[in-house]
Amino acid sequence: MEDARTGGGAARIALYALLVVLGALVAVAGALVQTAWFPGGLVLALAGAVGLFYGGTQLVGGRGGVGAPAAGWLVAVVLLTAPRPEGDFVFGAGAGSYVFLIGGMLAAVICATIGGFARPGAPVARRGE
User: Fold this and answer.
1) Using CA atoms, how far apart are residues 80 and 89, in angstroms rounded to an integer?
2) Which of 18, 31, 34, 65 would disulfide-bridge 60, Cβ 3.0–4.6 Å?
3) Is the pTM of this model over 0.90?
4) CA–CA gap between residue 38 and residue 84 (Å, rounded)
5) What is the sign, positive or negative, of the torsion defined by CA atoms of 69, 74, 76, 77?
6) Domain ranges within the chain, ordered by starting residue
7) What percent of the chain is predicted at pLDDT more than 70?
8) What confidence tens digit (pLDDT) does each residue in 19-66 have?
9) What are phi and psi of 80, to 5 degrees?
10) What secondary structure does DSSP assign to 40-77, as a single string?
11) CB count, 10 Å around CB of 48?
12) pLDDT in tens, 106-116
């Protein structure tokens, strides 16, 4: 049976699609929480984004694992910032909203650039022995 990390085209596509959907859900939840429980909600929202981005990299085993949830997160945030015809929108004009937007983007970049990705088939190295 093929694993999503080792090959399997359909399994890999399904995994990336799931990460995109999870990214959008984390963005919507974060947008609501960061305003409702400021400043703790902001920290919680950013922690959720970081957890998803880093978890995606570890699940996929490479930098593509942060791209999928970050894309879903970014699309959802952009859609939530657009004002509706009624004049309502989710994000306010406060500093917390900007910290959430910029902090989420920085979290995605940081998670994509840090090392520690598992290489399938690579020998395990031990240091200090």
Assistant:
1) 7
2) 65
3) no
4) 24
5) positive
6) 9-113
7) 77
8) 999 999 999 998 888 877 778 888 999 999 999 998 888 888 777 788
9) -75, -20
10) HHHHHHHHHHHHHHHHHHHHHTSTHHHHHHHHHHHHHH
11) 20
12) 999 988 888 66
